[in-house]
Every structure is written in structure tokens, then in C-alpha cells.
Automatic annotation (TrEMBL):
Domain HTH tetR-type residue range list: 9-69
Keywords, sorted A to Z: DNA-binding, Transcription, Transcription regulation
Higher taxonomy: Bacteria, Pseudomonadati, Bacteroidota, Sphingobacteriia, Sphingobacteriales
PROSITE patterns listed in its UniProt record: HTH_TETR_2
Signal peptide start and end residues: none
DNA-binding region: 32-51
Pfam families linked to this entry: TetR_C_13, TetR_N
Coiled-coil regions listed in the entry: none
Top-level lineage group: Bacteria
Protein name: TetR/AcrR family transcriptional regulator
Length: 201
């Protein structure tokens, strides 16, 4: 337990970590207050003493789950030698996301975006911002590769960045809804082919 945090901060952190898997698996609508009290061992009053409502817990959990994925990607990107290998990190990490090795229940961005599309504007906005940041990260890597002479000069960078994201999230969705990890592997080969195609011959 991190003693540098106040008791209230430690309690909030405990609630977020204890309910992260539930929200990611069941979604906002599917997660009940009894789920939260059961996961944390706290009363409804204790939870609402630290969060204004269930939506605020869900937002904090989304940040926590997406940060776990983002931190792993950043760590692996920092160790990759080439821009090509840095881009390939996304395919590798999201394969593990689908298998539940990083966040139980799949990709928090996809899960939240699908559920919150027409029902929860705050959650939808949080997922949209995560996608925009993701696009910028990929764009920056491609631009870096072009500047370094590793990638071709005539790449349509925004289109390529969005295509990589769409392929990865589509792979996550298809593999989970069909319960077929083989589908993930097949689609990720397309992601790898897209990234390979960026390289200067």
C-alpha cells in the first residue's frame, strides 16, 4: 500500500482496482452496485463517499484500464530499435489484451465506445479522446520513420494511422464475439503487412 497517498486516495485507488475487471467485462449498464460492494467489500455509502456516482467510478476505471495498456505499449516502444518495430508493438500488445493478459474483458476503449455510443456522453468522450491520442501516437511514429528515412515519403499518414487502429480494434471485436483467437491472428497479419509496406524498399 502506498503510504504517500492519503486514506481517501488509497480508498479510491482500492475501489478502482477492485472494480476494474467488472466494468471492463460487464460494462457500465451491466455493472450493479451490488457488484461494486461485493468486489470491494465496502458498503454503498463507503463507495459513494469516495465517488459521486457509478458513472464517476466507471470513468476512473476506464482511465485505469486504458492506462495499463498505454503504459505497456510505451514501455515496449521505448525498447524497440526501429520505427517499424515500434509500430509492431501495437499488434503484439493488443493480441495480449484480447487474451486477457493485461486487462480482463478485452480492450477498454472498444468496450466503452460500443456501450457508451448513444447512452453515456462522458464515457463516450473519454473513449473518443483515447482514440485521438492513439491516432496521434501512431502518426508521430510514422512521421518519425519518414524523417529517419526508414519509411516511404508518400505515405498517407492519417489514413494509415486510422486503418491500423480500425484493424486492431476490429480484430479484438471479432475474436471476442466469435470466441476465436485465430481470427485475431489473421487480422493482425494484415496489420503487420500494412506496417511492412511503409518501409523503404
Amino acid at each position: 500500500m502506498d503510504r504517500s497517498l492519503s486514506k481517501a486516495e488509497r480508498t479510491r485507488k482500492f475501489i478502482i482496482e477492485s472494480t476494474a475487471e467488472i466494468f471492463n467485462k460487464k460494462g457500465y449498464a451491466g455493472t450493479s452496485m451490488s457488484d461494486l460492494t461485493e468486489a470491494t467489500g465496502l458498503t454503498k455509502g463507503s463507495i459513494y463517499g469516495n465517488f459521486e456516482n457509478k458513472e464517476e467510478v466507471a470513468l476512473a476505471v476506464f482511465d485505469y484500464n486504458s492506462e495499463k495498456v498505454k503504459n505497456l505499449i510505451s514501455e515496449q516502444i521505448s525498447r524497440a530499435a526501429s520505427y517499424h518495430d515500434k509500430l509492431m508493438v501495437y499488434a503484439k500488445v493488443y493480441k495480449n489484451v484480447t487474451k486477457g493478459f493485461i486487462t480482463q474483458g478485452g480492450c477498454p476503449i472498444l468496450n466503452t465506445a460500443i456501450e457508451a455510443d448513444d447512452t453515456h456522453n462522458l464515457l463516450k468522450d473519454r473513449a473518443a479522446k483515447a482514440v485521438i491520442k492513439w491516432k496521434k501516437s501512431i502518426t508521430d511514429l510514422i512521421e518519425g520513420g519518414v524523417a529517419a528515412g526508414e519509411f516511404k515519403q508518400d505515405i498517407e499518414i492519417p489514413r494509415t494511422a486510422l486503418s491500423i487502429i480500425a484493424l486492431i480494434e476490429g480484430a479484438v471485436m471479432i475474436s471476442r464475439v466469435t470466441n476465436d483467437l485465430g481470427a485475431m491472428d489473421k487480422i493482425l497479419k494484415t496489420v503487420e503487412a500494412v506496417i511492412d509496406e511503409l518501409k523503404v524498399a
